[in-house]
Each structure stands twice: as structure tokens, then as C-alpha cells.
Amino acid sequence: MTPSDAKELIGLLAERSAAWQALWTVFYTVSAAIVTLIASGKLLPKYRWVASSIAVAGFLLFAAGNYRALDELRKQREAVVQFVTDKAQDTPSIIAVAAASAPPSLSDLQLYHWGLCGFVVVLLVAIPALQKAPEA
User: Fold this and answer.
1) Helices vs strands, H then E, count in the chain
2) Which residue has the higher pLDDT, 72 or 6?
3) Is residue 72 scored above 60 in pLDDT?
4) Which of 42, 45, 66, 61 has the alpha carbon at shortest distance from 121?
């Protein structure tokens, strides 16, 4: 394998890993923003439960779309890792990089993603319950 081939294969792995990280960054940012908005009590202060319910519904719609994108990217990463491993059969260091770039299993992704979603939903429901009632 030539050095330019190795560079291209590693670049391909890095590109898919960066896309994966970007999807998680969006997930964390949106989750924190929604929880912060509900915790601030500024959105429909007299109707906290309505605001919380709308936030939960909107968050779950977002989370489902984010999960689909993460799962699709997970499949792409699996294919890229397999491709790089096949192409770099004579280069153990690139095979090691490919193995380190392997995505989590489907069950690991589901457990982590939906576990975080459950935590956010619990926060969105618990925060209005623990806030003081707005003054009239």
C-alpha cells in the first residue's frame, strides 16, 4: 500500500467519525437548550405543564430523527471500517486505526441514545413539578 492510499483510507475513517461526532454534538446541544428553556420558566410561566408537554413531544420528534441519522451513519462507519480493513491487509497499523474507528453496536447505540432521551424527558417532566407556582 502506498502512503497516499493509506492517507486516503485514514481520511475516510476520520470523515465518518467527524460526522458521527457532529450528530452527537447537535443532540447534546438541543437537549441542553430545551431543558434550560423549561427550567428558566420563561416559556408560558402560568402553563408550565403545557410548555413541558410541548417540549417533550418536540424533543422526542427531534430525538427520533437524530437516532435515524446516527444509525445510518453507524452503518456507513461499519462499511468503511470493513473496506479499510480489506484494503489494508498488509498494513497492521492501518488495520488498528480502522478497528479503533469502529462504531458501537446497534444495541449499544440504542441503549445510550434512548437512555439519554429518557433522562431528558424525566428532567422536562420533573422540573415543572419542582418549580414554585408563578405569582399572580
Assistant:
1) 4, 0
2) 72
3) yes
4) 61
Instruction: Mark residue 113 as left, alpha or beta (left: phi above 0; alpha: psi -120 to 50; beta: remaining).
Output: alpha
**What is the CA angle 96-102-108, rounded to 5?**
140
Report which DSSP code applies to 135.
P
Across the range 8-23, mean pLDDT stands at 89
For the chain, give the mean pLDDT.
Answer: 90
Kindly state the DSSP code that residue 136 receives in the 8-state scheme. Answer: -
Question: SS3 sequence, 36-55?
Answer: HHHHHCCCCHHHHHHHHHHH
Sign of the torsion formed by the C-alpha atoms of 3, 102, 13 and 17:
negative
Task: Please report which helix (H) or strand (E) contains residue 63, including its range.
Answer: helix 48-87
For the chain, the distance separating the N- and C-terminal CA atoms, rounded to the nearest angstrom, is 74
128 near 52, Cβ under 8 Å?
yes
Identify the three-state secondary structure at position 101.
coil
Helix, strand, coil % over all residues of the chain, rounded to 5: 85, 0, 15
